[in-house]
């Protein structure tokens, strides 16, 4: 079972919390396993992509801190 919650103001699909919010596939709900936006072919806009597009400063995903799995 998943539910949509807002993380830092961005809507994410979350299935459970384990150190940080995780999506249905077990990766970080915010970056979906791509904490540094290296996967140019990822499907759909992730909250991390929207966060970046909004011009927010980041070193790695602010939710999982670069630990996507």
How does this model look, in words?
This protein is of the alpha+beta class. Helix content is 10%, strand content 23%. It is built from one helix and four strands; from the N terminus they run ββββα. It has one helix at 47-53, and strands at 3-7, 10-14, 16-18, 20-22. The protein has a two-stranded antiparallel ribbon. It has a two-stranded antiparallel ribbon with strand order 3-4. The longest helix has 7 residues, at 47-53. It starts with a strand and ends in a 16-residue tail after the last helix.
Please outline what is shown here.
This protein is α+β, with helices and mostly antiparallel strands. Helix content is 10%, strand content 23%.
> Could you tell me how far the N terminus lies from the C terminus, measured between alpha carbons in angstroms?
19 Å
Low-confidence stretches: none
Biggest β-sheet strands, sense, barrel: 2 strands, antiparallel
How many whole angstroms does the radius of gyration measure?
11 Å
Number of helices: 1
How much of the residues is beta strand, in percent? Answer: 15-25%
**SSE order, one letter for each helix or strand:** EEEEH
Overall pLDDT level: 86
What is the spatial order of strands in the main beta sheet?
1-2
Q: How many β-strand runs?
A: 4
Tell me, what's the shape?
A: globular
Structural class call reads alpha+beta
Helix content: 10-25%
């Amino acid at each position: 079972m998943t539910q949509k919650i807002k993380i830092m103001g961005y809507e994410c699909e979350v299935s459970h919390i384990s150190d940080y919010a995780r999506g249905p596939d077990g990766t970080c709900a915010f970056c979906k396993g791509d904490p540094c936006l290296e996967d140019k072919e990822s499907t759909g806009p992730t909250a991390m992509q929207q966060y970046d597009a909004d011009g927010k400063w980041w070193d790695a995903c602010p939710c999982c801190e670069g630990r996507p799995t």
